[in-house]
Amino acid sequence: MYKLLRNILFLFPAESVHHFSMKSLKLICKVGFLKKLIASQFTINDQRFTKELFGLSFKNPIGLGAGFDKNAVYLNELETLGFGFVEIGTVTPLPQAGNDKPRLFRLKKDKALINRMGFNNDGAKVIADRLREWALVNRQSNIHHPPLIIGGNIGKNKITANEDAWKDYEICFRELFDCVDYFVVNVSSPNTPGLRELQDKDSLKKILSNLQHINRAQKNTRPLLLKIAPDLNLAQVDDVISLAKEIPLDGLIVANTTIERDKLQTTKDRLQSIGAGGLSGAPLREKSTEMVKYIKENSNGAITIIASGGIFNTDDAKEKINAGASLLQLWTGFIYEGPAIVKKILKQM
């Protein structure tokens, strides 16, 4: 059924379809019995899938990665589809429109996407207010069920110079602190000019040390994670491992989108017409898994890993877990496999 719907949806621009689909789902879920019907079809409530991590209770280990619900608009709907956690953002201090459209492209032959969204979001204050309103309404009404875990993925505004980037991360951290369950520092998106330069060890240390200093001064701290690029060389990964232990971080998200275009079935002409952007989906699976395994082994298992990249089915999920991941994040797989993907993976696990 979804394959037929997907074929129709894929006739239209990717970003427009994303907004149309989620707005339609949101409208349907406003009708109580329809929301319950959808939840009964796509949600598995089984304590065997519960995962205790970072002092948090995840009702299952499959989450939705940042970039899908940038502005925390669709949390109820995504919970209805069975996700154990949702990472909102990337959030920046000031609202920004992102890069020019079109900026999201499908590579159907490769089961992949290319995006150059550019951290389009409503800004930290608006998103924080939205999260507070959501929590007030939903967490009180779901007192008999584990709450949906919300991660806050934070970044810098495009206009902020790299030497001042630490200030942007601090603004987002403080603004969202009472609204999210964990934080992810995003310095690995290829779509904000110069951002990946912040993966340099000294730049990273300044950002992360400052956030952890603020964190420790709070009554209840928040888990702090770092999202890294799959394009780092081994020396850079070793620096990340060393820094993660030194700060210390609560974990790593492995990995963001790649700028590489190797071994794709999509024609070179098509890739050239699309242009720059981060590649996600099936072509990233192997590279992401190798990085998860490397970090797990070379940290002696001391670093908790959330794996992201090329997860489409139960075999992909098991591969990441066997490599050393504790939690999983979907994104492109959700687009290609449809709303039943979480349930399908969990049932076969």
Report on the structure:
It is a single chain. Helix content is 42%, strand content 16%. It has 349 residues and is of the alpha/beta class. The chain has an eight-stranded parallel β-barrel, surrounded by four helices. A three-stranded antiparallel β-sheet has the order 5-6-11. A two-stranded antiparallel sheet has the order 1-2. It starts with a helix and ends with a helix.
Topology summary:
Layout: H1 2-9, H2 14-29, H3 32-42, E1 51-53, E2 56-58, E3 62-64, H4 75-80, E4 85-91, E5 104-107, E6 112-115, H5 124-141, E7 149-154, H6 165-176, E8 182-186, H7 201-216, E9 224-228, H8 234-246, E10 251-254, H9 268-274, E11 278-281, H10 285-298, E12 305-308, H11 314-323, E13 327-330, H12 332-337, H13 341-348
Helix pairs in contact: 5-6, 6-7, 10-11
Brief characterization of the structure:
It contains 13 helices and 13 strands. It is of the alpha/beta class and 349 residues long.
Summarize this structure as a short list of keywords or feature phrases.
349 residues; TIM Barrel; 8-stranded parallel β-barrel; 3-stranded antiparallel beta sheet
The end-to-end distance, rounded to whole angstroms, is 23 Å
- Using the CA coordinates, give the radius of gyration: 19 Å
Question: Helical element count?
Answer: 13
Can you summarize the main beta sheet?
8 strands, parallel, barrel
Strand content: 15-25%
Please indicate the count of domains. Answer: 1
Low-pLDDT stretches: none
* Number of strand segments: 13
CATH superfamily: Aldolase class I
Helicity range: 40-55%
